[in-house]
Amino acid sequence: MERYVVGIDVGGTKIALGLFDHRKRLVAEKGIPSDPDLGPEAFFDVLIQALLKLLAEESVAWEQLQGIGLGMPSFIHFETGHIVKTSNLVRIRDFPARAYLMDKFSGVPIILDNDAHVAALAEHRMGAGRGFKNMIYCPVSTGIASAIIIDGKLFRGTYGWAGESGHAIATPGEGLLCGCGNQGCFMSWCSGSMIVKHIQNWIAAGEHTLMTELAGGAENIACFHLEAAYDQGDPLAIKALNQMATYLGIWFFNLYVTFNIDCFVLGGGLLKMGEKLLAPVRRTFDQYNRNDMPVYFKTAELGNHFGIIGAAELIFDY
Ligand SMILES: [Zn+2]
To answer: How many DSSP H helices and E strands does the chain contain?
Structure first.
């Protein structure tokens, strides 16, 4: 009997499902929208229906599944598969997701993990981190996070959310309030969503920028306006980018001195800025790093499939 593994990537706007054979080849995939208005049971029922449809289309019985891996933008208690809370899908919280899914697919191993962990597994096994014994993966996007591979294994910590270092405190009592509930964490200074808040605050305080025109109003500013204004030499855009580079560089340095890991793989939407962002980030890092042992900053290599590949790796890795 041919065995299969399912990798499911749950995002704030869409859910991607991938069916892999035992050689890790992607056999079929499916995408459905992610509905933030649904409560947890209804949300997972939609996901289960999509999975059953995919299996039926490929004539695979669910008894043939070696396991189902799910990556979620959530805090997940790894041992129990209990979702504590989810960013972007705020109704998916305090929910025993693994127990709920195991009820529908009895006997099939089901593993849930957060999206940064899943992406790290994908990049380490198949992407930019191949061949490195130790690796840190950092998504730099709407939010920032890290995921740590030590001796080839993902380090999850005691409860399962090791690597939430974007919420390490950079400036106690100073700065913007973050979704984590604290003021002045690294993310509050340099993530995509937070830098936009800084820019809007500077505008409200009377500073001028091209970004207001480019976006048709301060309230519409997004990170691509920041990049466009930066390209035209806009001083506020330069200030914003420098702030991001400073806090990202210090954050990476702190991770480096904590773990002494030589390979950083960076993913996420803000990497589209390329060297504009990466060059000053590395300069900040080098300014604090007082030795010349090599440290590699690489860009994630896997395209859109990294989420389902990493989710399937949860099972292949098991
Ligand atoms: Zn935070």
So the answer is: 10, 12
First to last CA, the chain: 20
Find the DSSP H helices in the chain: 40-57, 97-104, 115-126, 186-190, 192-204, 210-215, 223-231, 235-259, 275-288, 306-316
Q: How far is the CA of 26 from the centre of ligand 1 (A)?
A: 36
pLDDT tens series, the chain, 318 aa: 899 999 999 998 899 999 999 999 999 999 999 999 999 999 999 999 999 999 999 999 989 999 999 999 999 999 999 999 998 899 999 999 999 999 999 889 999 999 999 999 999 999 999 999 999 999 999 999 999 999 999 999 999 999 999 999 999 999 999 989 999 999 999 999 999 999 999 999 999 999 999 999 999 999 999 999 999 999 999 999 999 999 999 999 999 999 999 999 999 999 999 999 999 999 999 999 998 899 999 999 998 899 999 999 999 988
Centre of ligand 1 to C-alpha 47, Å, is: 29
Q: Residues 46, 142: one domain?
A: no
* 38 and 59 inside one domain: yes
Q: Kindly state whether residues 169 and 262 are assigned to the same domain.
A: yes
List of residues 6+ apart from 31 with CB closer than 8 A: 14, 15, 16, 17
- Do 36 and 139 sit in the same domain of this protein? no
- 188 and 279 belong to one structural domain: yes
How many whole angstroms from 33 Cα to the centroid of ligand 1? 27
Number of domains composing the chain: 2
- pTM, two decimals, is 0.94
Kindly report the CATH number assigned to the domain that includes residue 224.
3.30.420.40
Strand partners, 177: 183
Contact between residue 164 and residue 287 where contact means Cβ atoms under 8 Å apart: no
313 CA from centroid of ligand 1 (Å): 28
247 and 107 in a single domain? The answer is: no
- For residue 251, the CA-to-ligand 1 centroid distance in Å is 13
How many angstroms separate the alpha carbon of residue 49 from the centre of ligand 1? 35
